Amino acid sequence: MKAKFIFTLSAIIAIVITTMLFSFCTKEKLSIDGVYSIVEVQTVKSDGSLTSVFPKESLVSFSNNYYSFCWTSNISDVHTWQITDSIKLSRYNQSIINAGTFELKDSVLTTKATFALNPMFVNGIAKFKCSFIGDTLVLRGLSVFSSDNIPHPVYANGSYIVSKLLKARDK
Predict the structure, then answer these.
(1) Three-state DSSP class for 78?
(2) Fewer Cβ neighbours under 10 Å: the N or C end of the chain?
(3) What is the pLDDT of residue 23?
(4) How do strand 34-44 and strand 50-53 relate by DSSP bridges?
């Protein structure tokens, strides 16, 4: 009986020590540094329905805590340096451009725009939950606020945006 008790106690102590050792092992740190193209942008409404946009032109880069985020779903057949205001407005209304600094902590990406196409977002803060599916970085929007702490209308209505970014391959 005493031998069985000592064996059981030894087994429990071994399991506890093993569990503690594994809990101290460092997890592989998530890194988003790199260059990406955006393959899909989904707006998920509060009722669960969603709409998708597939950008025609895009470039996103993350490096040394700086980021640049540019995409448009507008493709114009007009190829001239002197474009009409209607073409400019059409492209503006279908484009997202901002750049600034970022911090990645516990798979939450926080960006602060030092430049934005929309002046409301200059010095604004956006937060995303980051994950990878293969070479695709998935950014699930958590919140977007202007520098005056005014929420972006999409988020204010209980919706959110999911962006899927495909990592560029070295040439």
Answers:
(1) coil
(2) C
(3) 53
(4) antiparallel
Sequence spans of domains, the chain? 28-167
| Dihedral sign of CA atoms 28, 34, 38, 41 in order | positive
Q: Residues 16-28: pLDDT tens digits? A: 566 555 555 555 6
Cα–Cα nearest to 113, from 99, 127, 97: 99
Both tokens assigned to 19: 């569990």
What global pTM score does this model have? Answer: 0.79
User: b vs e for 51-74, b when ≥16 Cβ sit within 10 Å of the residue's Cβ?
Assistant: eebebeebebbbeeeebebbbbbe
Q: Within 13 Å and on the Cβ side, how many CA atoms surround 79?
A: 1
**Among residues 137, 171, 129, which one has the least CA distance to residue 34?**
137
Q: Token digits for 78?
A: 């007009």
Whole-angstrom distance between the N-terminal and C-terminal Cα of the chain? 69
Q: What is the pLDDT of residues 77-128, one digit of tens each?
A: 888 899 899 888 888 888 999 999 999 999 999 999 999 999 999 999 999 9
Q: Is 28-167 assigned to CATH 2.40.128.280?
A: yes
